[in-house]
C-alpha cells in the first residue's frame, strides 16, 4: 500500500502561504542550493505522484511546465525533467481541464479517489503545498506522513497548514538543519 505525504514549507508560526503575491516569497531567504539538493535527492526520492490543489497546480504548471530541460541551473533542470515526467493529480471543483502532461483532474469524492490511489502499486503520493487541500485530507485521515521544511521567518498571518482545532499525534522519523537556518522534519501520523 502506498503512503500519502504532505510536503510543505512552513513559517515558524505555522503558515504555508502568506496569501499575498505567490504566497511563498518568505521561503526565498532560506531556500539554498543545499536545501534544494537535499529536497530533490532525499525528501522527494520516493515520490512518484504529485497532488496539487488548484492554486498550487496553476503556479507549478505555469513555472515548471514551461521549463525546458536546458533552462536554469543544473538543479532546476534536474527538477524540471523530473516534475514534468511525474504523474500528477490536481484537485479542483472549478478547473475545466488539467493540461500539464501526466495530469489527472479530480473533482469528486476525495476519500474514494485517494483510497484507490493508495491501494495501487507504486511509490509515495505527495501533496505539494496546497494547505487547504491538506486540511481536507487531514479531516479525511488520508495523510500518513508530513515532510516539513520550517523556514526562519514569522509572517503573522496567512493560510495555516493545520486549521484551528486540528488534533494529531505525530512521531518524529528524522530531522536536519541547514546552514541557511531552515530545518527539515519528517513526522509519521501516530
UniProtKB/TrEMBL annotation:
It holds the Pfam family RibD_C. This is Dihydrofolate reductase family protein. It comes from the Bacteria. Transmembrane segments: none annotated. Residues 7-183 form the Bacterial bifunctional deaminase-reductase C-terminal domain. It comes from Catenulispora yoronensis. Gene3D superfamilies: Dihydrofolate Reductase, subunit A (3.40.430.10). InterPro entries: DHFR-like_dom_sf (IPR024072), RibDG_C (IPR002734), Riboflavin_Biosynth_HTPR (IPR050765).
